[in-house]
Amino acid sequence: MSNGWAVPGYTEVRELGSGGSGRVVLAVHEATGTAVAVKYLSDRMREDPAFVREFRAEARLLGGLVSPYVTGFYEYVEAPDGAAIVMELVDGVSLRTVLRESGRTEPEAALVVLKGSLLGLAAAHRAGVVHRDYKPENVLVAADGSSKLVDFGIAAGRGSTPGVAGTPAYMAPEQWQGQPASPTADVYAATATFFECLTGRKPYDGGNFAELAVQHIEAPVPETEAPEAVRPLIRRGLAKRPEQRPENAKAFVAELEALAVAAYGPRWEERGQRKLAALAALLPLLFPSAGGAAAGTTAVATTSIGSGWAPGRGGWLATGLALVLGAVVVLTTDAAGTPQDPSALSDFATTSPAVPGPTPTAGPSHPPSPRPSATGSPTPTPSAPTASPTPTPTSWPSGSTSPSWSPTPTPTVSWSPTPTPTLRVTKLGVSLKPGAYRGDAAISLATQGRGPVTIVVQWFLGGTQGAYSVPDGTDTIVVEAGAPATVVQSHTFTRGRGCYGGVRVTTKPAAANASASDSQPLVRCTDLEPPR
Q: Which residue among 273, 290, 307 closes a domain?
């Protein structure tokens, strides 16, 4: 930092990234020799009490998330001359760096990345926290092919209304409209990143914020660009309405595992991790342990607008202008007059969180209690440190709900596939409610046992009732046995190809009655085209 302040008890080795909002350094805990990452808030940001509160909130949030799939938190230190978060050092590179080098990944590797970071999101969702900024920059890939989720800088409590914020290429439709923070928005962003791993490009490529907003809200899901086997995950995760997506990251992991085992076999995860490790191995000089030059910044290109902003369909021109101006303000502020290179955003980025945190009071600094690394090799537990030099840093107040500072054992990352429990579908039914150009299929099923059930919905058009002669698309839904017995799936039929809409439903595992179907005349038949 400009005033030279450093967290007492640590020796700085080198800088890992820097920007207008702060910097991240590789440091060593003097009492134990443990390598850590220290994120410093910039002097300019410390002059704003709101930024300091938000920085504390990010620290408190990280301290409450104990998961091998989330960057570990050691301590928060605040003094008259500085503020810093001491974190686990992840010896890896960002998924963005991997994609920049390789272009795309094979499906099994993409599934491994998605599963690992979804498990990190699941830990946050269990704690009532929505990340709101899942993207390739915020997923770190270690040398063994494991992955971790980082940067909770703009996280928010579930159901809160912190306003429009995020990275536009990965923002869910409801996120653009400032609706309450929900885990389904994280599921959407994770799926957009998964799509990018598979195809080498983002799902939507609007030239400005207004175009991107319209595409995310209205454009069809570009599932056909991805390998056919994984399209059901993309359809589900990028669904326009939140209720059509898995309700949280844990539910999405269950769907992912069922699909991956069915499509690629029980050893998909082992192969995918090896492939991902091979891609990371192409970038050895970019790992923190390599001792290379610092790259990137700690600034994140996010857009944050007041919580009351919720444009209607007619207001996208003004919306685009507001978003562009918001981005200009953020980027100009972070750059302090120097344009930022969006491709150089740091793996250790941070922005403004919306989760309230405690106000520290004066007290002694605590050393970190390092947890096992993602590869399962534990780092040493620090012994009691020597007296901290002045200025005396501050820590969480006594009696607060801050995390414990004693060592917390963390399970190692396990990549063994989860077996699919045996189950039976004892009964299957469907009824079709037609409209002019669409139909709503109400699917009912009864199950025994536990595990995921894959529902395959085939749509047809025909010239007579019961004639399933013209295929018109297929949807795949994955539900847990014991979940609500009725699922509604909607479909827009192709115009001019028949007056009767039909639906046929099967399941995996197969239902006792094999399949169910229904056919009904479309409303348009009476007014818009003669029967055929």
A: 290
